[in-house]
Design goal:
Strand order of the largest sheet: 1-2
Oligomer: single chain
Structural class: mainly alpha
InterPro entries: ComplexI-like_HydComp, ND/Mrp_TM, Proton_antipo_N
Number of strands: 2
Order of helices and strands: HHEEHHHHHHHHHHHHHHHHHH
Main location: membrane
Shape: globular
Keywords: Cell membrane, Membrane, Oxidoreductase, Transmembrane, Transmembrane helix
Subcellular location: Cell membrane; Membrane
Membrane topology: Multi-pass membrane protein
Number of helices: 20
Length: 483
C-alpha cells in the first residue's frame, strides 16, 4: 500500500486545477490556494522520498503494451525535485505578473494541471506511460501558449501542436517497433534492447533514431526547433516553464530514459546511432548561438539561447560515457535554474517598463539594480565562467568529449561559450553602462512577489556553483548505474 502514495504528487495538482475552475476564487483566494497547493505537493514529494524511497506502482494494466506504470528511482527523484521546487517560485512570480496579462483563473487552471503532467513524466516507469503523459503535456501547455488569444499566439500554438504531434508520431513508431522485439517497454538500467540477442542492427538503429528525433522535437533539436522561439508570444511565466522546467526539460529527460533505459548504451554504440545524432547536436549548439546573436527582442534572444544550451544536455547523452552523462544531467539542472532566472528578469523589465527590445533598456540597471544584478549573475553562469554552476556542468561535458578522444566536442563547447558571452553580456552592458533613456527614469524595482523568486533562484544558482558536490555526487550514482 505504501507504494500507492506515488500517485499523490501526480494527481493532486489535477485536483487543484479542477477546484480552481469550480470555485472561481477571487484573486487573493486563488493565490493562497494555488501557492499552498504547490508547496503542499512539494512537501508530499519530499516526504515520499524520505519515508518510502524508491518504489513502483501499477495504476492500470490492460496488457503488456498498455501498462500505466509509475516508478521512483534516482533519476525521477532528481527531475521531480527540480520541477516541484521551481514550480513554487514560478507560482509566486505569476501572481503578480499575470495581472497585466489577464485571464488569471484560466492560467492557473492549466498551470497547476501542467505540474501534475510533468510529475507524471518524472515518475513514468515505462515508455508507454511516459508517452501518455508526454502527449498530455502538449495538451496542457497549449492553452498557456495561446493565452493572449491574439492571431500571433494562435499561429504559434498551431505550430507548437504540429511539431509536438509530429514528434509523437515518430515516438509511437519507435515504441511499436521496440515492443515487437522485446515485448517489454519497462525502464531497465542498461536498456531492454540490450537483452535481445542476435538482433537486427539496422532495426535497432531505426528504433533509436525514431525515438531520438521524436523526443528531440520538444528538446528543440535542430531542425525541429523553430516552434520554441515562436512560443515566446506566451506570458513570461509560461516562457520560463517552457524553456527551463516543463517542456524542453521533459524532452531531454525522455531522451535520457530512452537512451539508457530502453535502447542502452551498448546497443547505441553497436548501431553507431550516437554518431549520427551528434552531428545534429553540434549544429544545434552552434546554430542556436548564432541565431541568438541576431535577435534584438529580449525573450527571443533567450529562446534561441535555450536551443543552443539544450544541445549541451543532448551532447552529454550521446557521448555515452560517465563524465559526459554527469555533465548532461548537471546542465539539465543548472540550465533550468539559470534560464528561469533570466526569463523572470526579462519578464520583470517588461512588466515594469513595457520594453521588449535590447536597445530600449539603456541605463535600466540603475533603476532596477536588483533585477539586472540577478540577470548579470545568471548570464555569467550560463557563459560558464568559473566558479559558476554553468562552468561545473560544462567542465564535465568537456571531460566526456576528451575521454572519447573527440577534442572537437570540447572545441565546440568553448566556441559556444564565446558566442554565449557575445549575446548575453551586451544586455548587461546596455543596462548598466549606457546612458539611460528619458522615458525610463522613473522606473522602480518590481513588486516583492516577483523580486523574491528572482533573488531566491539567483542564490540557488550561486550555491550550485560554489557547492556543487552534493548534486554531483548524486548524479554520479545515477551515471554509474547506467554506463
Amino acid at each position: 500500500m505504501n507504494s500507492a502514495v506515488i500517485l499523490l504528487p501526480v494527481f493532486f495538482p489535477f485536483v487543484l486545477s479542477i477546484l480552481i475552475s469550480i470555485f472561481k476564487f477571487d484573486e487573493r483566494g486563488r493565490n493562497i490556494f494555488a501557492s499552498a497547493g504547490v508547496i503542499f505537493n512539494c512537501i508530499v514529494l519530499f516526504s515520499i522520498f524520505y519515508y518510502v524511497g524508491e518504489c513502483s506502482f501499477h495504476l492500470f494494466k490492460f496488457n503488456d503494451f498498455l501498462d500505466i506504470y509509475l516508478k521512483i528511482d534516482k533519476l525521477s527523484i532528481l527531475f521531480s525535485i527540480l520541477v516541484s521546487v521551481l514550480w513554487i517560485f514560478t507560482t509566486f512570480y505569476s501572481m503578480e505578473y499575470m495581472k497585466h496579462e489577464g485571464k488569471e483563473n484560466r492560467f492557473f487552471i492549466f498551470f497547476t494541471a501542467t505540474l501534475g503532467v510533468t510529475m507524471g513524466i518524472a515518475f513514468s516507469g515505462n515508455l508507454i506511460t511516459l508517452y501518455i503523459f508526454y502527449e498530455l503535456l502538449t495538451l496542457a501547455t497549449f492553452p498557456l501558449v495561446i493565452h493572449s488569444g491574439t492571431k500571433q499566439a494562435l499561429s504559434s500554438g498551431k505550430k507548437y501542436l504540429i511539431y509536438s504531434f509530429g514528434g509523437a508520431t515518430l515516438v509511437l513508431l519507435g515504441m511499436i517497433l521496440c515492443f515487437s522485439i522485446t515485448k517489454n517497454l519497462n525502464f531497465v538500467p542498461g536498456g531492454v534492447l540490450a537483452g535481445v540477442s542476435g538482433g537486427n542492427t539496422k532495426l535497432f538503429l531505426g528504433i533509436y533514431v525514431s525515438l531520438f528525433l521524436g523526443f528531440g522535437v520538444k528538446a528543440a533539436l535542430v531542425p525541429f526547433h523553430s516552434w520554441l522561439p515562436e512560443a515566446m508570444v506566451a506570458p513570461t511565466p509560461v516562457s520560463a516553464l517552457l524553456h527551463a522546467v516543463a517542456v524542453v526539460k521533459s524532452g531531454a529527460y525522455a531522451l535520457i530514459r530512452m537512451s539508457y533505459f530502453i535502447v542502452g548504451a551498448d546497443v547505441i554504440r553497436v548501431t553507431k546511432g550516437h554518431i549520427y545524432m551528434s552531428v545534429l547536436i553540434g549544429v544545434t549548439i552552434i546554430m542556436g548561438s548564432f541565431l541568438a546573436l541576431h535577435q534584438q527582442n529580449l525573450k527571443k534572444r533567450l529562446a534561441y539561447s535555450t536551443v543552443s544550451q539544450l544541445g549541451y544536455i543532448l551532447l552529454g547523452i550521446v557521448l555515452l560515457n560517465e563524465d559526459a552523462l554527469v555533465g548532461g544531467l548537471l546542465h539539465l539542472i543548472n540550465h533550468a535554474v539559470i534560464k528561469i532566472t533570466l526569463f523572470f528578469c526579462v519578464g520583470t523589465i517588461m512588466y515594469m517598463t513595457h520594453k521588449t527590445e535590447i536597445s530600449e533598456i539603456k541605463g535600466i540597471g540603475k533603476q532596477m539594480p536588483i533585477t539586472m544584478g540577478c540577470f548579470a549573475i545568471a548570464a555569467i553562469s550560463l557563459i560558464g565562467i568559473p566558479p559558476s554552476n554553468g562552468f561545473v556542468s560544462k567542465w564535465y561535458l568537456a571531460l566526456g568529449g576528451l575521454v572519447e578522444g573527440k577534442i572537437y566536442f570540447a572545441a565546440i563547447l568553448l566556441f559556444s561559450a564565446v558566442l554565449t558571452a557575445l549575446y548575453l553580456l551586451p544586455i548587461v552592458t546596455v543596462a548598466f553602462f549606457k546612458k539611460e533613456n528619458n522615458d525610463v527614469i522613473e522606473v522602480k524595482e518590481a513588486p516583492m512577489k516577483m523580486l523574491v523568486p528572482i533573488v531566491s533562484i539567483t542564490v540557488i544558482v550561486v550555491l550550485l556553483g560554489l557547492f556543487p558536490n552534493p548534486v554531483v555526487t548524486f548524479i554520479q550514482k545515477i551515471a554509474a548505474e547506467l554506463i
